[in-house]
Amino acid sequence: MAHLDFAGRHKLNHVVHAPKDDPFHRAHWRDPYPPEQLSLLAELVAAARTNHVRLVHAISPGLSMRYSDPAEHERLHAKAEQLWQIGVRDFALLFDDIAGELGHLADRTAFGTDRGAAGAAHGYTCTRFVDRFLAPRGVDEPLLMVPVDYAGTAGSPYRRHLRDALPPSTLVWWTGPDVVSAEITRRDIEDAATSYGHRLLLWDNFPVNDYDRTRLFLGPLTGRTPDPDGASLAGISANPMVEAAPSQLALATVADYAWNPHDYDAAASAARTVRVVAGRDAHALAPLVHACAGWPPDTPQDPRLRRLVTAALDDDLAVARPAARAVRTHLGGLARLAEASLGDTTLVRQLGPWIRAGADMARAGRRAAELLLAHLDGTTEDELRERTAAALEDAERHYPDVLRDVVPTFVREVLRRTGGTAAAARTSPWVMLVAATHPEAGEETFAASLRRRGLEVRFSATGDLGHDPVHPPELVVLARSAGPDAARAAARLPVPMLAWAHLVAAGLATESAVLLVEDSIDVVAPGDALAAGLRGRVPVHRGPGKITWGEPTPDATVVARTVTGAHPTVFRYPTGAQLADGSVAPAPRVAVFLGRTALAPWLMTEDGGAIVAAAVAELTAPRTGHGRSSG
Description:
Layout: H1 2-9, E1 14-17, H2 35-50, E2 54-59, H3 70-85, E3 90-94, H4 105-111, H5 118-134, E4 144-146, H6 157-165, E5 171-174, H7 186-196, E6 200-207, E7 233-239, H8 244-259, H9 266-278, H10 282-291, H11 303-312, H12 317-330, H13 332-335, H14 346-376, H15 382-395, H16 407-417, E8 430-434, H17 441-452, E9 456-460, E10 475-478, H18 484-491, E11 497-499, E12 512-518, E13 520-523, E14 536-539, E15 545-550, E16 557-562, E17 568-573, E18 589-591, H19 606-620
Parallel strand pairs: 1-2, 2-3, 3-4, 4-5, 5-6, 6-7, 8-9, 8-10, 10-11, 11-18
Antiparallel strand pairs: 12-15, 13-14, 13-16, 16-17, 17-18
Helix pairs in contact: 3-5, 5-6, 8-9, 9-10, 11-12, 12-14, 14-15, 14-16, 15-16
């Protein structure tokens, strides 16, 4: 209801009701809505009408529909009739995120077995819906639909079948050249429209954050053509974040763009939007909005801060000193935000976790700037260094991500330069952690956990024994930031290996992938040492995060599987086992579930850490025969 009010105020003229966790929208699309839920939907329809907003109700039948069965179409029309009775006049049929080929024999008989034949079935379903449901009721607005093949500009067999079967007036929802598109040009639009043979409606995956629940995208829409006039584009639909109120900061800029693309000024729209949406809290919240404005997702969260910290680490003192002072000043407003007097609004409440995370991250950055300035003046104190390290530890315990791609790297480099992270030299035993030149924070945390076990850690970007060809490591760890060539080199070493990335390159899996928003795994071999005494469903992340899985050979023992898809995510090979690339394991190999951020303190649960610790203990335990087991 609140979102419909917002949409009306900002000239957003349609809202699509398509929540995947509504069972009557997707999984149980055939079933009518129960009276109490239908009553709530009727309230939304009435509120939309009051706000001059079209409420588009989407039905997603593709998980189970038998397209060749007339009774299935009657069920679809009956579901739409129930919604018609409460005032819904705009409909959409969605076929996204389902199998790309037909699953029922009768459908393959009716629509063909050639590649992309599902497009014919989906187009037929839309045509029948228009001809037998919408047209008899006098609806002349175009039907909206999402295809299976909803991203990219090139043609495909599916699109060719869909083009020939869809009603001419249908608008095809399309996400741009990518699922999450940094830029959409007029050429992209025309190429995609040609491939579908229909006009498009952009389903813009901005500012959606369901694929990374640590992030907020609070900045303005960017990268969209300023000249869509005459193009085969009917409009734009923006996919909001899970957090409804913060989404308004970005959605209002989408409205500005949609109403006047030629004169759209992203920076001016963003500044105006903060004032309108945040009201009296706008000034206090501005530093957080700025810190979370980065778009697309792989761009720096604060480009100016990145430039400042780079300059602060310059060897030229005339550059470094003023830049370090500027870092301290730049982060001041964000550091004070947690103590600011903010209103008790939905916006502030939903921003709360990011407000606290941002304030702690800014404090860590300011402490590092102060430490660097003291160091440049030759007055570094151990107490200041300790406070800086403690501030970073506090900042990195937050699950929400504010400036995590900028501040921690700066703080760690300052600590290194001032002697804060120097470790006592050891000759043995040691661990080779194969990672990028600048490891991820979670990889650094993993290294720290090894040091607490009495192991020296040496980072390697190449995966070879250039560090110490005479004394091999006790353990090789293959991290996400390593390159595939380094992974292959490390896999050849006859020492135990722990890996959470490059599983195929390392010969540990025939295929591998990363699930994006998972928080638990299923332990299927609770008696195995790698299970760490855990059993059943085990939360390994404090919130949705990335989980790595791989498909091993039959010689592997699978200890845990993913919840989604039941893919192996913790497994082991003994020495001498047949690996996925046809080679033989020269020493034990263990794969674990960790994602890109490894043992990131903001993500890992105690149980998740225990499973990884159990793997390290298993691989570094005393072994027979020249320090290695025979299997």
